[in-house]
Amino acid sequence: MGADAADAAARASASESVSVRLGKLEEVERSESEEIGLRVFVGRRSASISTSDFAPEGLRALAERAVEMARLAPEDPYGGLAPADALFAGDAPDLQLNDGAEPGPADLRAAALASEDAARAVAGVTNSNGGSAAAARSVFGLVTSSGFARAHAGGSHTLSASVVAGEGSEKQTDYAYRTQRHLADLPAPEGIGREAGERAVRKVGSGSLPSGKMPVVFDPRVGGGILGHLLGAMSAPAIARKASFLLGREDEQLFDTAITIAEDPHRLRGLRSRHYDGEGVPSCPRALVEQGKVTGWMTNVASAAQLDLALTGHASRGAGGSPGIAPANVFMHAGALSVAELIADIEDGVFVTDLFGQGVNLVTGDYSRGASGLRIRNGELAGPVAEITIAGTLPEMFRALVPANDLAFERGIDVPTFRIDGMSVAGE
């Protein structure tokens, strides 16, 4: 129909979940979706459009509309497809992203009940928000007119529980969950439930603490968010827009020289594993931060062209819209100290288990979040604290960061427990 170049991305998914509450079935849900997105280029002009109509006449109408839209679009000097010599080619070893297991509603219900029952059995738990179990599978295909044509499938299994502890004004809620590619890799439902119950109970009787500068220790459950802010600032589109606090800090010692942050897109059964990115470019294991310094920006085709950089295999693609940026299986290397050793010399500090609010500015690096957790007194975890605010700047926080040795691969962005001294804490 006159397009000079085009790519098409298709995604389909199906999931089934069962939720229970107080030992009774609450909800059984099944969902299926499929969508295809077409992006076309007419000269330096482009347009993207998507549909869930896979009929031949529907796809033909999609193509016709996309080309008409592209002809009316403004010129973009940087848009385009990945060139043929930059595309993933050759064999794609099995990353074991789908175990083929399809537990039925009865299996999911039994797992959800076991998780909730274990949580409710924890002394001090007074109510339940429920337990749930889910299984999902998906397939993604990408074809480009520059010569790429591949697809891959994946699956996941999830268990969760959320309960309430305490009475009246002392009520506290917490949760636990795990997602794995293979059902056999999930912890036992009883372990998930017990973790949820224990987390809720230890929040009861929360107080505050005096305001001031002090060490803040981040639980891995929330520490990954700090890494997420770094990754957002390392995206080449943010650098190109001059919307990153890392701009001009390419050679700066951001972290201690002992800190390494790596990416392993080829990890077997990894939650974000892949052989190629959303534009067909190979995804490769690499260090994103090495000896405390960033190793470069994460690019897609448009940002690489704008900044005159190489493609790094970090493009992300939904069915519609232009590609964004997404890393795969990022983790911070573990440190040498146990968590007990990490906090042993803290006279007064806070161990953060929950963060709230959106007070992070990736342009300036300013950081301010509501938090709750446990007070640290004389090297020991003490009573629960809530309704506090922790603040600092991300560059200062990175420089002060010290990791423990308890790294576990559970989330897709994984960190050990880590400590940051000198943060501002607002309490009483």
UniProtKB/TrEMBL annotation:
In what residue span(s) does the Metalloprotease TldD/E central domain sit? 101-203
Q: Cross-referenced SUPFAM superfamilies, in alphabetical order? A: Putative modulator of DNA gyrase, PmbA/TldD (SSF111283)
Report the residue ranges that make up the Metalloprotease TldD/E C-terminal domain in this protein. Answer: 211-427
Domain Metalloprotease TldD/E N-terminal, which positions?
A: 6-70
Pfam families linked: PmbA_TldD_1st, PmbA_TldD_2nd, PmbA_TldD_3rd
Q: Name one GO biological process term.
A: proteolysis
**What GO cellular-component annotations does this UniProt entry give?**
cytosol
In terms of Gene3D superfamilies, this protein maps to: PmbA/TldD superfamily
**Alphabetical list of InterPro entries matching this protein:** Metalloprtase-TldD/E_C, Metalloprtase-TldD/E_cen_dom, Metalloprtase-TldD/E_N, PmbA, TldD/PmbA_N, TldD/PmbA_sf
Q: State the family it belongs to.
A: Belongs to the peptidase U62 family.
Q: PANTHER family recorded for this chain? A: METALLOPROTEASE PMBA (PTHR43421)
Q: What is this protein called?
A: Modulator protein
Species the sequence originates in: Qipengyuania flava
